[in-house]
UniProtKB/TrEMBL annotation:
Location of the Calcineurin-like phosphoesterase domain: 39-223
Keyword DNA-binding belongs to the record: no
InterPro entries for this protein: Calcineurin-like_PHP, Metallo-depent_PP-like, PAPs-like
Gene Ontology MF: a single term: acid phosphatase activity
Higher taxonomy: Archaea, Candidatus Iainarchaeota, Candidatus Iainarchaeia, Candidatus Iainarchaeales, Candidatus Iainarchaeaceae
Protein's UniProt keywords contain Signal: yes
Name the record gives this protein: Alkaline phosphatase
Keywords recorded for this protein, A-Z: Signal
């Protein structure tokens, strides 16, 4: 009887150990969060370049969040100038931080002005994913959403053979959704000089190849919408809809010479982009600060 108990105990230990090892080495796309996946239609509220204690913009855009339901995509440079613990406490928490519980953030370049973006990862906690990576994905309604770290040197690279590149390819391949949206801080195309680093282009190419429908970015302190773009950034009827939403509250900047693919631009009004994500398509609307006059809206179908 004693030998049987020892054998059973040993067998149980092996099962537990095997389960632990299996969980430890499971690909990260097995651990995606699910948000409102029982709903056919959901809302995503997006903007980047947000909180600066010296600006009034963050409070103006936070006021919009007071009355806009939905998951919030904070597209990097969430607090200025360095993403420190103190800045999150004094500049972000009392504006956009009021909606931290429904925020899914992307890391920007200013966060890394604090070593390892420690303030960002500490403030957002598990929602910001692994501090050594800063990229993750989740399911929202019937959509799959990918959040990338466009600070390529901090993320271990953005090339196809980098850890992030390999993860992205796997994540998109395992994505069962008909519609996919991605966001990252740096845009692949921009009307503002120096705001579209070439390092992110491999990620853009993978997003195109993986059938992603919409990509959102920030970094450029303005709003800009482009024609649908292919993997090379040229117009394609079946391309990705790219929108830059760097209007979250930091000081706005004028837009330079625009490429032929740029359709709409705004550098006068702070605001957020409201997206309604349905089972086979989407609607977008730029919602300006109270008193603002700029608007942009439209709809698209998943490609």
């Amino acid at each position: 009887m004693g030998k049987k108990l020892i054998v059973l105990a040993a067998g149980f230990t092996l099962v537990v150990l095997a389960a632990f090892i299996s969980a430890l080495f499971q690909p990260s796309w097995h651990n995606v969060a699910n948000i409102d996946t029982d709903k056919i239609s959901v809302f995503l509220i997006a903007a980047g370049d947000i909180a600066d204690c010296s600006a009034v913009g963050p409070e103006k855009t936070a006021a919009l969040l007071d009355r806009l339901d939905g998951t919030i995509a904070a597209i990097g440079d969430t607090v200025y100038p360095s993403g420190s613990h103190e800045e999150y406490s004094s500049c972000y928490s009392n504006t956009w931080g009021r909606y931290k519980a429904r925020t899914m953030p992307a890391v920007g370049n200013h966060e890394y002005n604090t070593r390892g973006a420690a303030g960002y990862f500490s403030y957002f906690g598990p929602a910001a994913a692994d501090p050594l990576k800063g990229y993750y994905s989740y399911n929202l309604g019937r959509w799959h959403v990918v959040v990338l770290n466009s600070n390529c040197d901090k993320a271990g690279g953005c090339s196809d053979d980098s850890a992030q590149g390999k993860w992205l390819k796997e994540d998109l391949a395992m994505n069962p959704s008909a519609c996919t949206l991605a966001y990252m801080h740096h845009p692949p195309v921009s009307s503002e000089a120096g705001k579209a680093p070439a390092e992110v282009l491999p990620l853009w190419g993978q997003l195109y190849a993986g059938g992603v429908d919409v990509v959102l970015a920030g970094h450029q302190h303005s709003y800009e919408r482009f024609k649908p773009l292919d993997a090379q950034g040229n117009y394609s009827e079946n391309g990705i809809q790219l929108m830059i939403v760097g209007t979250g509250g930091a000081a706005l900047r004028s837009i330079g010479k625009s490429p032929a693919t740029s359709v709409v631009r705004n550098s006068t009004d702070w605001g957020v982009l409201k997206l309604q994500l349905d089972a086979a398509g989407y609607n977008w609307e730029f919602v300006p600060e109270d008193g603002g006059t700029f608007t942009d809206s439209g709809k698209g179908i998943c490609r």
